[in-house]
Amino acid sequence: xxxxxxxxxxxxxxxxxxxxxxxxxxxxxxxxxxxxxxxxxxxxxxxxxxxxxxxxxxxxxxxxxxxxxxxxxxxxxxxxxxxxxxxxxxxxxxxxxxxxxxxxxxxxxxxxxxxxxxxxxxxxxxxxxxxxxxxxxxxxxxxxxxxxxxxxxxxxxxxxxxxxxxxxxxx
Length: 171
Hints:
By secondary structure, the chain is mostly beta strands. The protein is built from no helices and 14 strands.
């Protein structure tokens, strides 16, 4: 696979086998893959966004988050397409984040600074997203005692600029 202009060096070998992988085919020919690595003797659990604009013939690689952990983190990832770009969501250290990726020709996508879910996150996992009208975004995740009964579903809506729209919800 050819390297795209503006991309990071080749991602490290090894995807975490316990974490989810998210895939999205958006605009004609645009393909995205979001995943967590497991490299450096399984201590580095970084999040990478792989992208292609030509149906997978060439690919760019961007490191969008880092996490050093000596254990499996079993985290989730999500991708959602919108007319103004694509969104990526992931969890690191019990907090959920999202970024917006926009394409410009054959260069690697531009990825916005990560936005965290509101408040202090210690037990947030498994993010999901749904794009809305005018570039709005619904971000949802589970929150609670992980791997035990009693988790809650939480959500927050954001406008096209990534700014919060209303109070977060929880059920």
